[in-house]
Every structure is written in structure tokens, then in C-alpha cells.
Amino acid sequence: MDNEEYLLMGRAGKMHQHYYSTEPEVESHPLFIDALIRGNPMRFKSDAGVFSKDKIDRGSLLLVNSLPVKVDEIILDLGCGYGVIGLGLAKVAPQGRAVLVDVNARALSLAAENAKLNQVTNVEIRASDGFAAISPSEMFSLIVTNPPIRAGKEAYYPFVDGAYAHLMAGGMFAAVIQTKQGAKSFAEKIRNTFGNVETLEIKGGYRVLAGRR
Predict the structure, then answer these.
(1) pLDDT per residue over 37-90, tens digit each?
(2) Quick one: pLDDT band at residue 12, thresholds 50, 70, 90?
(3) In angstroms, how far is CA 172 from the centroid of its own chain?
């Protein structure tokens, strides 16, 4: 979640909500978006009050399509929105599973609908502010995020520390971020935490950054 900040009109008519609000109050206006994810045609239900509601974010597409994924990958999608990244990865890891988390209740409901719509059964949808609802013993081989840049570093920098704690040996943390929105400093955060950082892809002003455990 990077360059598209959705400020949503609340019932009082004031601009005060974001796509990372827990309970968006904006009126529902559902729509469907078709996309090719890792070679698979997929359809996603979207709605007002979620990130990139009218089209799939370019950063999310770059991230989901650029990652190396094993068929038995154990995946965590932090800030899953309506499920593009997590469901796209779970679909190509049929022997693995994916946990999709977000703070936005409407996004979580949409992600669950989209799992059924795309016949992705190896997923769990969970309400969580970052790693808050991830137990200390839960470990993953791949942790991914399109972080809420507009929420500030205090919101998404902890994703890096949490990922390090919840990755299996040899596992990877990967994130997409716009170059102009702090990619250099975020890469340093990953390097300082993991002892390494690499750029998996650069395209259209976005970078996919990764650290390996």
C-alpha cells in the first residue's frame, strides 16, 4: 500500500478516514476487477473504503508477479486489502497455505469473498494490526507486504522486525515501495534487521525489496 492514499468521507462529511481504518464508514459501492496474476486469470470484488478500490495497484501487481514461490510455501500477507497478493500467491502454492491479515474489516470480508470467487482454499483470513494476531510460534517461509506508507514509518517499519522474528530459516520478507517514497531508507531498515537486502524488481517507479533470514 503505497502511493494511493484514500481519504474517505465519513458520515459527518469530514475527511478523516483512510483505507487502513478498522471500520470504514463510507457507503458501500462494490465492483469487480479482472486481472492476470502469475499467469492465472482472477477476479476480485472491491468496494469503497479499501485500498486501490477502482483498479489493482501497480505496486501490488509488481510484487505478486516478481516473487519466487515454491508449491509448498507458507505465506503471510501483511495488510492484505481485498486479497490480490495473498490469494495470487496461494494459488500457485497449492501444497502450502497463506494467512492474510489486515485491520480493515471491509477489506477482510472482501478477501474472504475473493478466496471463494477464485477457488483458493488454502488460505486463512484474519483481523490483525501487523503481527498483533500472529502467535509467537507461527512461522512462515514467505512474508509479503505492500505497506501503508501514508500511515508513517511507525506503522510499517515494525513489519520488518516482525518478519525477521516469524520467518523460518531461509525464508524471505518482501515489500514493494515507490522509489520516491522512502525506498532507500526502507532498504536500509531491511539491511539493518536482516543483515542483507536485495532488489528483486524495479518498474514504473516501484521497487520490490527483500531480506532473507
Answers:
(1) 999 999 999 999 898 888 999 999 999 999 999 999 999 999 999 999 999 999
(2) very low
(3) 14
Cα distances from 114 to residues 34, 43, 61, 94, 155, in angstroms, run 11, 7, 16, 16, 26
> What SS3 string covers the chain?
CCCCCCCEECCCCCEEECCCCCCCCCCCCCEEEEEEECCEEEEEEECCCCCCCCCCCHHHHHHHHHCCCCCCCEEEEECCCCCHHHHHHHHCCCCCEEEEEECCHHHHHHHHHHHHHCCCCCEEEEECCCCCCCCCCCCEEEEEECCCHHHCHHHHHHHHHHHHHHEEEEEEEEEEEEHHHCHHHHHHHHHHHHCCCEEEEEECCEEEEEEEC
pTM flag (> 0.70)? yes
- Are 119 and 49 spatial neighbours (Cβ–Cβ below 8 Å)? no
Amino acid letter, 168? M
Burial of 41 (0-12, 13-18, 19+ CB in 10 A): exposed
The domains of the chain, with CATH numbers, are 8-212 (3.40.50.150)
pLDDT at residue number 22: 60
CA 93 distance to own-chain centroid: 17
